[in-house]
Amino acid sequence: MNSAEPLRAAVTETPLGRPAILSPAFIAEGVFVHLSGQGPLVDGAYSPATVEEETALTLDNLETVLAASGSSLANVVRAGVYLADIADFEAMNRVWLERFAEPRPARTPIQAGALPGGIKVEIDCVALLAAEWRDRLRGTARAGTVADFASIRDAAA
Q1: Cα distances (Å, whole numbers) of residue 121 to 6, 11, 66, 140
Q2: What's the pTM value of the predicted model, to 2 decimals?
Q3: How far is the C-alpha of 154 from the C-alpha of 77, rounded, in Å?
Q4: What one-character-per-residue DSSP string does 41-73 give?
Q5: At 140, which helix (H) or strand (E)?
Q6: Closest CA to 128 of 57, 27, 39, 58
Q7: What are 70-109's pLDDT values in tens digits?
Q8: How far apart are CA 63 and CA 65, in angstroms?
Q9: Adjacency order of strands within the sheet including 25-28
Q10: How far apart are the first and last CA of the chain?
Q11: Which among 113, 111, 149 has a CA at the least distance from the CA of 12?
């Protein structure tokens, strides 16, 4: 394998379902899991709630996609938090502080103004792939191609 070629895997299936327009997550260089923005959806539907409730549900969904991608909230190194109203920062932050242990990941809160479907919170992140999955990905995926992480995960089961 040419070490200069990137080792990548697309995470196309999660318990949350697969949006037709994007990959829920993408593993890059066999080390980093990049997650698409997650929102406070249950079975693909949004029910308006408080910022605290929406943040908690968004983090639950983030955690679900991370688990399906061979990672966890404990491995998050960077996050973007998009708020419809930056005045909701303190409410979001109270939930954030409960869910992330020290050292907390780097984070950029952004007032988005309007988020899809009227949600109040959307979060994307970059996490480290768990060591066991890094080894499996290196042993299975071919450099220069995009592997399907589900097939690697299923082969390990």
Answers
A1: 32, 23, 18, 36
A2: 0.84
A3: 26
A4: EETTEE----HHHHHHHHHHHHHHHHHHTT--G
A5: helix 131-140
A6: 27
A7: 899 999 999 999 999 999 999 999 999 999 999 999 999 9
A8: 6
A9: 106-111, 76-83, 121-128, 32-38, 25-28, 8-11, 146-148
A10: 25
A11: 149
> What residues does 35 pair with on adjacent strands?
25, 125
Question: Which two tokens mark 111?
Answer: 């007032």
The answer to whether 64 touches 16, Cβ cutoff 8 Å, is: yes
Evaluate the omega torsion of the peptide bond into residue 105 and state whether it is cis, within 30 degrees of 0.
no
pLDDT at 100: 97
In whole angstroms, give the CA distance from residue 114 to residue 120: 8
Q: Which amino acid is at 57?
A: L
- From residue 115, alpha-carbon distances to 46, 124, 135, 145 in Å are 12, 13, 37, 33
Maximum C-alpha span of the chain? 50
Query: Which residues neighbour 66 within 8 Å (Cβ) at sequence distance 6 or greater?
Result: 25, 33, 35, 72, 73, 75, 76, 125, 127
